[in-house]
Amino acid sequence: MQSWERFLDDLKDRTDIVAVVGRYAELQKRGRNYMCRSPFRNERTPSFSVSSDRQFWYDFGASEGGDVIRFIEKAENLSFLEAVELLADEAGMEMPKRSHKATPQQKDTKERLYQLHQAANQYFLQQLQHSSTAQDYLTQRQIDTPTQQRWGIGYGGDAKDGLTHWLLQQGYTREELQHSGVAYTYGEEKTMQDRFWGRVITPVYDARSTAENPLIIAFSGRDILPESTTHQRAKYVNSPENPLYIKSKTLFGYHRARKAIPQHGAALLVEGNFDVITAHTAGYAHTVATCGTSLTEDHLRMLRRVTNALHLCFDNDTAGKKATLRAVEMTLRAGMTPHLVQLPAGEKDLDDTLRGQTSSTVPPALDAALRTPPHALEALLHAMASKLLNGTLSGQTALLDAYLPLLNLVTRPIEREHFLTLLSGTLGQPKELLMAELERLQLTTPPRKPQRLKERDTESRERFTREEEFVGFVRYFFPVVEDFLDAEVLLLLSPGTPPHTLLRKLHTGESLTPEETALLNTWELHQAAEQEDEEVAEQVVERLWEGYITALQVEKTRREQAEKLR
Length: 566
Prior knowledge:
Layout: H1 4-14, H2 17-21, E1 28-30, E2 33-36, E3 48-51, E4 56-59, E5 64-66, H3 68-76, H4 80-91, H5 104-129, H6 132-140, H7 145-151, E6 154-155, H8 162-169, H9 174-180, E7 183-186, E8 191-194, E9 199-205, E10 216-223, H10 227-230, E11 236-238, E12 251-252, H11 254-257, H12 260-264, E13 267-270, H13 273-281, E14 287-290, H14 297-304, E15 309-312, H15 318-333, E16 337-340, H16 350-354, H17 364-371, H18 376-388, H19 393-407, H20 413-427, H21 431-444, H22 452-463, H23 466-476, H24 478-481, H25 487-490, H26 498-508, H27 514-531, H28 538-565
Parallel strand pairs: 13-14, 13-15, 15-16
Antiparallel strand pairs: 1-2, 2-3, 3-4, 4-5, 6-9, 7-8, 9-10, 10-11, 12-14
Helix pairs in contact: 3-4, 18-19, 18-20, 23-26, 23-27, 23-28
């Protein structure tokens, strides 16, 4: 068998570092080497050198360098073995076995979870066959039987603990059910209940999943029962994270879209699972969606392995438009090209737009909008001008303040020149003047480190606990979540702590001391900063609520397990 050291040498021999780095930065030949701006830092002057002869890179600004494996580690935020696996896959090489892979216990735990999820999905498929309500719902959404089978769609059942009892009979333990997230406990008696009862279920598959080897890592459930039955619970519920499932690194539908994305030259990113399913049915097999979370840098790294272009098609509401702006900024910062799909007027989302369509019935104008959407900066310039320009100087400056920060993220000179020309024509101002405005912005805007967002998130977590954030969330969105707040929610918080006390007082309407008011205001202001403004759709608030409840349930379980070990 080939040794590990020989394998690494062969891998590096077969991999051209110039071609690899060229996927992340625009290289220019300088003598025998290549130069570019660092893919890891924001800089104006190229200081990143790549040697074709030595197959080595060096970042003069950061005083560090390495081979192609080290580059992929940093560029994709991967471990050494993950970087090697990625490069080996691209080179068509099989990795040799190593003695220090995952321990047998870790392998057994993950394999057991895969089996549990597969068993749970069998239950969901059986329940769908016996539920006219679920079948009627899918018929209403024009999801036919072949599509249901292709995506493994099922139903959680009408019984609140039907899946729990069924899995226990199959030999799985209560701890395994709770670990996977298909069930959870509540109350002092630790009653176990199904997470997805009364919901249409779409499994979430591992990126490596195939038709022959389906690897289910999580589930997503859509409530279909009357509110009188479910007491206004969240419309959508996703599995909590588990050893197989990390939301920030998972894209729904990627296992089916992975090969289609390079063929289409782009990935079509939407918001919901049904958007993905409907789009694939209509012939857009390059469609994926995030899983109950916003777009992350990890998602972009995942997509950048197979494409450099991202077609954004989020919901046509206030929350969707704000998510689009954030996604455009993140995509530009990642060195990718964002495009905006513009749905027909009055359409809410891609599912509504394509429902019932096939690849042969999609109107040509809609097909063109989905396959060749305009560059995001062209579409946003038109939208911003329509909203902000009013024939006054203040309208022009408002447009510049909104548009130039995005234009400043464009690094290729030819693209920047193109958008400056468009902006000049829109404003009726000379390009030289707009260049001066852009240079003024660059001088007044501090360089942004690639890790800045993560550093801010880390600081936030260090400053506030999950329970404190949750109480601030409840206070901030109290008119929306008041009906969700009950005694069971109080049980999720650590008893006797300030968050538990303040949440109880919010629930009962008790008066607060000045100290408690100040503390509650601090947590609420933190939520205000996180949400950025008050115009958050009620559906989004419900999703946030469900996310907090899931996280608090996990933390409560950990506390109880820690207590048992003492």
